[in-house]
Amino acid sequence: MKLAWIGLGAMGWPMAKNLRQAGHEVRVYTRTAEKAKRHENEHGTQATTLAGVAEAEVIFTCLPTSNEVEAVARALLDRLRPGMIWVDCTSGEPEKSREIARMLEEKGVLFLDAPVSGGTAGAEAGTLTIMVGGDEAAFARVRPLLTALGKRVIHVGPVGAGHATKAVNNTMLAANLLAAAEGLLALAKAGVPLKTALEVINGSSGRSFATEVLFPERVLDRSFPLTFKLGLLAKDVRIGNKVVEGEGVPAPVFHLVRELYEIAKNELGEDADHVEVVKLVERWGKGKIK
Ligand code: NDP
Q1: Closest residue (by CA) to atom 18 of ligand 1?
Q2: CATH fold of 2-157, please?
Q3: Burial class (CB in 10 A: 0-12, 13-18, 19+), 158
């Protein structure tokens, strides 16, 4: 099957590689042309122009936000053909995705929102969780492609349902990171060794991905590798808030998390890693989690 991949960032780069390794012809396009050329040289894909993308049967996008997805969809619109499928792996906005889907449908193109969870390690290993919204027949057609990218590929509802699910998941991740930072900073100050505290918490009911993976592997050793930009997580939290507000659910926790991530983004910069949010808690609490 002829595939095209748009967006070769932290996630898109390894995901496009995995599709190629699964035996597909993959054309790649990204904002910086030399990056696409490098992907071609390293992984046997084919660097292309935006126009070249339109020759594929299935187009994937993995871009920062739905705004970039909409911009490339508009730029490609006149070249699209009935029967094509557009799979958007961006962590996008449900409402914007429904608009994009309607625009593409006029050209006979079906849109699936297919955001992913599992980070750059999951993208590299092909073990992502992929949550898909949209037409079930289109989902059935691309399912074999998605299984090259992830080990859990789940249809969650109509267009936008994937993006809504992803935004709720990431707002919970954002809340867990802050809650763990506050608690662990206090325990450090109280003289509890943090490895011991985490051993207890991770065998107890307060555990989360933050305590099981992020604190042991990135905070205690102060490595804070850049894998997922803080600005992108703040964007997900804003979308998560729109989702709960849109459904009329009172959500004081989600609102507070949104405010805190906006402050963190301003203080630490959009391009800091998301886990560096704990440094804000450390600044306010005058201590270190280590
Ligand atoms: P990056 O910032 O690393 O990559 C974004 C990519 O989009 C870059 O390759 C950039 O191009 C490209 N790009 C931006 N604008 C355009 C445009 N107008 N046309 C073509 N290409 C463009 O982001 P990530 O890969 O980290 O994230 C991508 C999406 O996946 C986001 O929605 C994010 O929230 C989500 N996500 C990220 C995870 C992570 O751990 N990083 C985990 C799960 C989801 P170039 O490099 O050429 O300049």
Answers
A1: 68
A2: Rossmann fold (3.40.50)
A3: middle
